[in-house]
Amino acid sequence: LDSAQGRARARAMVAVAALTRSGFAAGDIGTLMSPRTVISWAENHEIFSSVGKAFQFSFLNKCDESERAIIAEYYQRVFDTLPTA
């Protein structure tokens, strides 16, 4: 992520993590995205060349099924698209 575009993507990933923390604090979801998960997401992005697919494998698939729609919405707010495989 060592480019202007990569740094913007990293900031967006951190923004999604911040939304999960806000959602947790509000009681909307029960799963937080840790800094370690954001790092895993970035590493998986390098493997899959897809930020959405990497998000699914790093975080979304590990969440309770009842929370996935809310978390996908957090992703959509930041990336302006839904995470897709």
> What is the CA–CA distance across the termini?
21 Å
Globally, the shape reads globular
- Poorly predicted residue ranges: none
Oligomer description: single chain
Counted beta strands: 0
Please report the number of helical segments. 4
Report the portion of residues in β strands: under 5%
Rg over CA atoms, rounded to whole Å, is 12 Å
Query: What is the helix fraction of residues, given as a range?
Result: 55-70%
Helix-strand pattern? HHHH
Label the structural class: mainly alpha
Largest sheet: none
Q: Could you report the average pLDDT, rounded to the nearest whole number? A: 93
Topology overview:
Layout: H1 4-26, H2 35-48, H3 51-58, H4 68-79
Helix pairs in contact: 1-2, 1-4, 2-3
Question: What can you see in these coordinates?
Answer:
This protein has 85 residues and is mainly alpha-helical. The protein is 67% helix and 0% strand. It has four helices and no strands. It has helices at residues 4-26, 35-48, 51-58, 68-79. Helix 1 crosses helix 2, helix 1 (4-26) runs antiparallel to helix 4 and helix 2 packs across helix 3 (51-58). The radius of gyration is 12 Å and the shape is globular. The protein starts with a helix and ends in a 6-residue tail after the last helix. The mean pLDDT is 93.
